[in-house]
Design goal:
4 helices
Length: 165
């Protein structure tokens, strides 16, 4: 009887439908695993450079002197080939040496900043809008404002609500 149960279970498992993959992937993995690797990391690096350039004239003179974009990630709905959401992770720090003790004091912050997007921005349109030399300031498709505008709101929002120390 045990042998029959074992074989019956094996037959059921062999005809069961395969696990369904998620409907979204990282932009790096669109349309297949790592297919967009170079293109996305070039875009991310350009956005980080744009942030560094603009930051020096805006928020980087505030509470912290060392802001860095740690990562940018975007979700793509596979079936429709559209970017559905993105987020930036920004970290900042300030170090001070105490003259009396020599102790190095560390103050840091971390923000997770969602990117404002209209629902369903086609992947190619998303890349085209952000790939230029001023991509971090370029208007996002349909919005009329760029990525940096959203970051400023996140980093300088009321009471630094996005700040996580």
């Amino acid at each position: 009887m045990t042998w029959i149960r074992c074989c019956g279970l094996a037959v059921l498992l062999s005809v069961a439908p395969p696990a369904v993959a998620g409907s979204h992937v990282d932009l790096v993995d669109f349309p297949t695993s790592e297919a967009n690797w170079d293109r996305f990391y070039d875009l991310e690096a350009a956005l980080m450079r744009g942030f560094d350039h603009l930051c020096a004239d805006t928020i980087c003179a505030g509470d912290y002197s060392n802001y860095r974009v740690m990562q940018v990630r975007c979700a793509v709905q596979l079936a429709a080939a559209v970017v559905t959401r993105c987020a930036w992770v920004v970290a900042a720090s300030e170090l001070r040496v105490q003259p009396a003790t020599g102790e190095v004091q560390v103050d840091n912050g971390r923000w997770v900043c969602p990117v404002d997007l209209l629902p369903g921005v086609p992947v190619e349109q998303f890349h085209a809008a952000l790939s230029g030399p001023d991509g971090v300031e370029a208007p996002l498709p349909g919005l009329g404002r760029g990525l940096f505008d959203g970051l400023l709101g996140c980093l300088q929002g009321p009471g630094n609500a996005g700040r996580q120390g």
